[in-house]
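Sequence only, no structure available. Ideas?
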Amino acid sequence: MINIECIQAAQGDCIWVEYGKDQDSLHRILIDGGTSDTYKRLKKRIKKLKPNERHFDLLVITHIDADHIAGILKLFEKDGLGITFSDIWFNGYKHLGKSRIKGVVQGELLSDYLEQPHLNWNKAFKGKAVSVDKRKKFKSIKLPGGMKLTLFSPTQKALSDLKPHWFKEAKKAGLLVDNKLPYKKDLDTCPSRSKRLSRRMLPDIDALAKTSFEPDSSLTNGSSIAFLAEYAGKKMLFTGDAYATILLDSIQRYLPECEPLYLDLFKIPHHGSDGNISKKLLERIRCSTYLVSTNGAYHKHPDKIAIARIIKYGGHKPDLYFNYLSKYNEIWSNTALQEKYQYNAHYPTDEQTSIKISFKKMQQ
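Reply:
I predicted one. Tokens follow.
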């Protein structure tokens, strides 16, 4: 069985993955921690586990943007839940390339924490950068319980490109010891469920999907850790805020005979930004389930263009899963739109603080 739980993390990501033969033998991966306020929901989810079950085979902190990392900083700061991790993937300043600066790691809150001797920091990569070496063949990493991970992003070049801007971005993310992020409540963008949309307000999917692709150029997003996860015949692509261009390049090298990458789940990069999901990328995969994590705060994600591309080029009758119902994604719940373009939209209820996707029937 596989359970993917996309915890509400405001405009960010916080993804809880469980896998195992049955409920009594589950292994766990945590991907990002969302904003500072996400910590409350993450803590509540952790406390549902018995104290002896609060072990994760892997924690992935995809990159240094505050909406992915702030909740993790708070989790480490509190440090009273008895959580342990077999490995923690995170690229700090020391992983961005050679530097003449000494002692710089002591200026980073998270890196300072991860330097503790009892923690495994990038253990699967022998302490070096979590990055794709385009000169070498892909090498999968096997986790306890049988989950196989294949890294698709970032490239070493993407990490090097970030290096000159690291401290500016680290300051924004609250990573510097003397500049911790203030505690801010997540913006609530959930609309009234009684609102109805008329047919004339419906977006033109065909026209939106044809919009020219302008790729994301954020250096922090380019440094995002993204990986293919495989377990018991199921394949899932977790992407952080990775570039569409880097993901496509990795898929092309991973499958050089031009065959499509078959997926059971695709976590859409950068919360459904149109600069991170391209027609070329969608045409290289075959997937029926797409996951979007955001409440639309600050950046009004997901972009209509991105969702239109998924509906148009993302396979037959795709299922779209959103971890919030917001004024920026409610349009996709329209029944007439779903019938016309043959897709399904799924949202959490008012009482839920996450959306869950489960795969029960597993390949033996």
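The longest helix spans residues 66-78.
Hope that gets you unstuck.
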